[in-house]
Amino acid sequence: MKHKLFLCLSLLTSVTFAQAPTFSVTFPANQSAKPLDGRLLLILAKNNKPEPRQQVSDAVETAQIFGVDVNGLKPGQAAVVDASVFGYPKKSLKELPAGDYYVQAVLHKYETFNRKDGHVVKLPMDRGEGQNWRVAPGNLFSKPQKISLKAGSKQSIALVMDQVNSPIVEPKDTKFIKHIKIQSKRLTEFWGRPIYLGAHVLIPAGFDEHPEARYPLCIYHGHFPDDFGGFSETPPPANMDTTDYSERFHIYGYKKIEAQEAYDFYKKWTSKDFPRMLIVEIQHANPYYDDSYAVNSENLGPYGDAIMYELLPEIEKRFRGIGQGWARFTYGGSTGGWEALAVQTFYPDEFNGCFAACPDPITFDAYTNFNLYKDKNAYYSEGPFRRTPRPAQRNYLGQLKCTTEETNHRELVLGTHSRSGDQFDIWEAVYSPVGSDGYPKRIWNKLTGEIDPAVAAYWREHFDLMHILRRDWKTLGPKLTGKIHIYCGDMDNYYLNNAVYLMEDFLKSVKNPPAGSEVAYGDRAEHCWNGDPTQPNYISRLRYNTMYIDKILKRIEANHPAGADLKSWRY
After folding, report:
1. What is the model's pTM?
2. How far is 125 from 110, CA to CA, in rounded Å?
3. Which fold would CATH assign to domain 177-363+466-558?
4. Which residues contact 357 (CB under 8 A, 6 or more apart)?
5. To pair with 380 at 20 to 30 A between CA atoms, which of 36, 198, 204, 420?
6. Nearby residues of 387 by Cβ (< 8 Å), 6 or more positions away
7. Cα–Cα distance between 387 and 406 in angstroms, integer?
């Protein structure tokens, strides 16, 4: 009897729809009198804390989401989401179990760009938030609404996007943190409209008292910074709440740890023996992602040259930088780790060292956990009788979080034409050639995972850093010896250590000249391990701006031109 009851209950909880519900979504004229373009997103969640739009992720607890492009949607006109619309993780509304849900709609607005290359494309302009569709200023959304989906009944549910995200408040200058924004001539010409680059600059103690001093400069590469983070002139309150729990690091009170580290950095920064220098975090969000990867790209434009030859000279002019390659360094983790190695490689004379932590794939022979050139499918390893899904994320024990197919399908729901604003799509936007429609050529079929070898070959020649170093070592080697430092955990959540192993083998093998490089691994360390074996990840990731100082000073002492200014900034 118990078995029969259990079976009945199981069947009841797994009922799906013979005829799927339909959602019609509108926005009122008081939000926009003009028709709008964009990506309409419909999110369903089992609870409302936080709002459904904040629950979409790669985690198994993710909310359900569907997406459809809208072009010229008029106020009061309904955009329809029905069983034909592709979703994640369930692919169709037909697959949703009956039951109670909280539903919310979001319109991620697109604008039209008339690019220099003649292509006309529709993309989401960054509006100061760092390409986040959930909070992008001007995006419309509906209030979460509780609904009950019933099996066997034809339901039509109306949603009104009568809410709008507020503008982002720009940060203000402080004694030590300054902000700069310039219009880039190169990027404005490429995109056919004004495009700006910004930066947060941490200036040294004694800057005003020593007008004769000129300073070395470090670029701290990473994802979009809303301000210079990890620096505070005040200590955390003694009674600061420590009940917050970090899911990532499995500890309580992490906000207080961060606050204490920020204050400790301030104390080091202003101490007598700390070297005086400039540290820069760049804002280069663009229509595809929260940063540009700091290189020139067919789809994003000449961000590398714009940063190198427009933004950095302006920073060094305003804040008395030395302005020469021997006095510039770069570091960062993850995206920032790839960028640090990339700019050192593409602009070898302009930097005197890079420190690349947990870098995005630095060779596509190990594009996370597969070979982009030899494998046929990004989602499955395939044999004659079976297909095995490829993992995308793991923890330090190797336990799977999601597959490559799942995370790519989430991106596909968030945006077609590489417009999700997420990880695999930005790699595609940066590395791919422009397609005939003006959007990035797909490296693989986003639905099936079938790899395009012609696009992979383009990636290899233009952005595979190990291949480029091997191909051009005769000219690059003399400029890069002693400058490359790479760090990665051997249990990186995204399998990024696989590419680091191959790069290490290459760097050890080169002669004439030898690389003189450093590669180190953190035992059982997850993503963002950055080279300090004495501290756990959750501490060392907060110390990028201090942990490489000794190596930077040694590099300056060992490699500077005659007559270089080694004293004015050592007060």
Report:
1. 0.95
2. 7
3. Rossmann fold (3.40.50)
4. 331, 332, 333, 334, 336, 337, 486, 487, 488, 528, 529, 530, 531, 544
5. 420
6. 380, 381
7. 15
What count of residues does the chain have?
Answer: 571
| Tens-level pLDDT at each residue, the chain (571 residues) | 444 433 333 333 444 555 789 999 999 999 999 999 999 999 999 999 999 999 999 999 999 999 999 999 999 999 999 999 999 999 999 999 999 999 999 999 999 999 999 999 999 999 999 999 999 999 999 999 999 999 877 899 999 999 999 999 999 999 999 999 999 999 999 999 999 999 999 999 999 999 999 999 999 999 999 999 999 999 999 999 999 999 888 899 999 999 999 999 999 999 999 999 999 999 999 999 999 999 999 999 999 999 999 999 999 999 999 999 999 999 999 999 999 999 999 999 999 999 999 999 999 999 999 999 999 999 999 999 999 999 999 999 999 999 999 999 999 999 999 999 999 999 999 999 999 999 999 999 999 999 999 999 999 999 999 999 999 999 999 999 999 999 999 999 999 999 999 999 999 999 999 999 999 999 999 999 999 999 999 999 999 999 999 999 999 999 999 999 999 999 9
In the chain, the amino acid numbered 253 is: G
* Contact (CB, 8 A) for 429 and 300: yes
